[in-house]
Write a structure and sequence with these properties.
The chain is mainly alpha-helical. It has helices at about 10-25, 25-35, 40-65, 75-85, 90-110, 115-120, 125-145, 165-180, 185-200, 225-230, 235-260, 265-290, 300-305, 310-325, 330, 335-350, 360-375, 380-400, 405-420; strands at about 70, 150, 155-160, 295. The protein has a two-stranded antiparallel sheet. A hairpin with a 3-residue loop joins strand 2 (about 150) and strand 3. Mean pLDDT is about 90; it is low at about 1-5.
Length: about 425
Amino acid sequence: MATYNHLSTKTEIIAGFTTFFTMAYIIFIQPDMLALTGMDKKALIAVTCLVSGIITIFVGIIGKVPIAMAPGLGLNSFFTYTLVLGQKIPWQTALGIVFLSGFLFFILTIVGLRKKLIEALPKSMIYAITVGIGIFISFIGLKNLGLVVSNEATIVSLGKFNPTVLIGIGGLILAISLEAFRIKGALLISIVTSTIVALVFGYTPLPEKIISTNIDLLPIAFKLDIISALKWSLIGPIFSLMFIAMFDGIGTLVGCYNKMGKMDDKSGTSGINRILALDAFGSMFGALMGTSTTTAYIESATGIEAGGRTGKTAIVTGLLFLSGLLFIPVIGIVPPYATAPALIIVGLFMTREIVNIDFTNLEEGFPAFITILMIAFSFSISTGLALGFISYTLLKLIKLRFNELNITLLIITLLCILFLIV
């Protein structure tokens, strides 16, 4: 197995920049989405940069791998639309849920139960959750773009093609074109270009200043309410968030380790466990600071393709995230319709997993279909996940396939039933 000790620092720096530019869109999207809950947007920008930077640097120093972490897209939509806007949970309590889910994830990883838990769950359901969240995120993107609007008669309908919608559509065309040509940083380029166009035509205000050292985290930092999150009625959301974070993290890390050629290495599995523990720690730290669940980013693979093989790459990426703290005034003027194309395209990437679901087998296909359908149309990831697991177990019982059920799946199904009726 080749070693990476002699890689040039220049290569690692280039790889770190590459990873940052392909995932920097989260700096703009995260504050926009969480601000819908009533949280302070400027503080959210600062916390997004701070948490992403610190956790990614930790991954570089402790994990010694070129993998970056930041608040996850599907996870932030769960926080905003399912917990706060959907279930009317105060954002402080929602942060408590994020902390507890991260703590459970950390414990399961440390004691070695994480692998057994994943193996106990049907693969079709894991893929369905990813696809459902992808469609959910894309729908939010269409809504933020103004291309889809509410309609009393038809629930939703096509929006009007006003100037801001046209700017957003232009950004979407630019983003998908750049992605088609495999241009690194396509989503970031789209966001910046759309914002500049909006500035030129006066649809978004000029920033008061370009650089600012006035960083205020107090409106959201250390405001989490763990006590209020310790309710029986919130067990479902806590476990849902933990499962989503776990599936997301494992899938990303396996993909990145394969690209590095480390999965054949004896240290591969232990390395992933160590990074997953950091992932869980990042979620707890993020909740303390005032943001939603963090996760490893598949965009890290672009840095690996650029030659990144060690923790130096992650350290460079982390430092670039921290540098974003200086540009909060500029980041704050980016409008939702400029970030909407990134949501739509990331949703597209997530729906690719649908090819792994066997819809010809109704016992696997129907629960997966219900999961995807209900995540998107109930506007609740928890509801879709709950109905999916319940229907999966019910079909197995009807078919008398008791050997295909296990105690873990039965417990999850019971928790899902309680979540829906309590």
